[in-house]
Amino acid sequence: MQYLISVIDDTAGLATPDEEAAIDAFNDRLQAEGHWVFAGGLGAPSSATVIDNRGDEAMVTDGPFVETKEYLAGFWIIEAADLDVALELATEGSKACNRKVEVRPFLVV
After folding, report:
1. Is the pTM of this model over 0.90?
2. How do residues 37-89 score in pLDDT, each as one tens digit?
3. Whole-angstrom Cα distance, residue 26 to residue 30?
4. 37-44 long-range contacts, Cβ below 8 Å, gap at least 24?
5. What is the rounded CA–CA span in Å between residue 35 and residue 80?
6. Percent of the chain having pLDDT more than 70?
7. 10 Å Cβ neighbour count for 82?
8. Hey, is 79 helix, strand or coil?
9. Alpha-carbon span 42 to 57, nearest angstrom
10. How far is 76 from 68, CA to CA, in rounded Å?
């Protein structure tokens, strides 16, 4: 089953060199153990563009959708046998990136 591990940040800075090294080591482990699907970091919320095309005309707005102290800074998509394995890996990912993470399973469609 695949899981999304979202990295939650509340600082304006990027990862420190030590955090980057720990993240690289964690990524290497995910790949070596067959858990790796995809991962990436995201630009700051100020670089976001929100598009709402639910009405008669699309509305395009610069900046984040909501004002919040915490934001999605990056993510891993992993393959894990079950939620327990995903939680163990997420715990290690949180330590590596020195940030909170959230784990959510992908829905089967």
Report:
1. no
2. 999 999 888 888 989 899 999 999 887 666 677 888 999 999 999 999 999 99
3. 6
4. 37/2, 37/76, 37/77, 37/78, 37/79, 38/76, 38/77, 39/74, 39/75, 39/76, 39/77, 40/74, 40/75, 41/7, 41/15, 41/73, 41/74, 42/72, 42/73, 42/74, 42/75, 44/12, 44/71
5. 6
6. 96
7. 10
8. strand
9. 28
10. 22
